[in-house]
Amino acid sequence: MIYVYACIVVVVAGIILGLALGLADKYLKIEEDPRKDDITALLPGANCGACGYPGCSGLAEAMVEGKSTKASDCKVIKGDKQKALQDYLDNMKK
Ligand code: SF4
Fold it and tell me: What is d(CA 33, CA 37) in angstroms, rounded to the nearest whole number?
């Protein structure tokens, strides 16, 4: 009988924790600037750290915050992709 109680306790605890996580996700979510995702998508995704940030999303965040304004701050991106990123950054300022 003790095994049945243990199973009930585990199931009830799982349901309560699941609901708590669901509510926390809904009400405590921090909205991110969608431009960060746009810029991250334009970056190469190598996450090499050569730009001085801990990955492409770090540089994207710096670009959104205005700490970095040049596509050339990414040491990997070249050519058309660099131009596309610079155009996006220039349009962001407007
Ligand atoms: S240098 Fe470019 S590819 Fe490397 S982490 Fe920075 S943004 Fe990503």
Answer: 8
For residue 45, give every residue at least 6 positions away whose Cβ sits within 8 Å of its Cβ, in sequence order, or none: 56
Most ligand 1 atoms within 8 A of CB, residue of 39, 48, 68 to mutate: 48
Every domain of the chain and the residues it spans: 1-30, 34-93
Is any atom of ligand 1 closer than 6 Å to the C-beta of 54?
no
User: Which listed CATH number (1.10.15.40, 1.10.10.10, 3.90.660.20, 3.60.10.10) goes with 34-93?
Assistant: 1.10.15.40
User: Average pLDDT, stretch 53-81?
Assistant: 96
Answer whether residue 86 shows pLDDT above 80: yes
Going by alpha carbons, the residue nearest to atom 2 of ligand 1 is 74
